[in-house]
Amino acid sequence: MPVRAEIVRKKLLDIGESLSRLRSWLPVTVDELESDLMLQWAVEHGLQIAAEVLFDVGSHILAGEFQESVDEYREIPGRLRARAVLSEETAKRLDGLAGFRNVLVHEYADVDLRRVHAGLALDSTPPVSPDSDEGVDDLVRAPGGASRARRLARCFALSL
User: Where do the structural domains in the chain lie, given as residue ranges?
Assistant: First the structure.
C-alpha cells in the first residue's frame, strides 16, 4: 500500500485542529487544571488525540514506504529512526510522546497534571498545514523511499 496523499492530508488537518483547540485553552495553570475537571478532561483528551494522529501518520509512512506494520505506538519512533526518516532527537521526543499517550490512555487516574501542563507548551510549535511548501501530493508522488518519507515526516514532525 503506497502512502496516500488524502490520508496524510486528513491526518495533518486533524493534528492542526487538535493543536488549535488545545491552544484555545492557553494560558492555563496547573491549579486551574486541578480545579476544573472539564478543562482537565478537554486538555488530556486533546493531547491524546493529537498524539494518536501523529503516530497514525508515522504508521502510514512505515506501511506505505517500507511495508512495515507496528503493533504499538511506541515502536514507531525507533522504526522511523532506523529507516533514516527521523533524526535521533525527534525519535526521542516521539518516544516520550508515546509514553505520555499511554499514560493518558491506560493510567488516566494517575496522570500527573504537571506533565499535562507541560504538554500544553505548544505555543512555540508552528501550525501544521497540508499545503506546506512541499505539497503532500508532490511528496507522495516523489520517487525515493526514505528520502520521500523524510519529507513526509517533516510535515507531521512540525507538530511535536
Answer: 5-157
The whole-angstrom separation of Cα 2 and Cα 104 is 31
Give the range among 57-61, 86-90, 140-144 with minimum mean pLDDT: 140-144
CATH: 1.20.120, 1.10.287, 3.40.50, 1.25.40. Which one for 5-157? 1.20.120
Q: Does this model's pTM top 0.70?
A: yes
Condensed to tens digits (0 to 9), the pLDDT of residues 92-139 reads 888 888 888 888 899 877 888 988 888 777 443 434 444 443 444 444
Under 8 Å CB-to-CB from 156, ≥6 apart: which residues? 8, 11, 12, 15, 54, 57, 58, 128
At position 38, the amino acid (one-letter code) is M
User: How would residue 59 be classed by pLDDT, with cut points 50, 70 and 90?
Assistant: very high
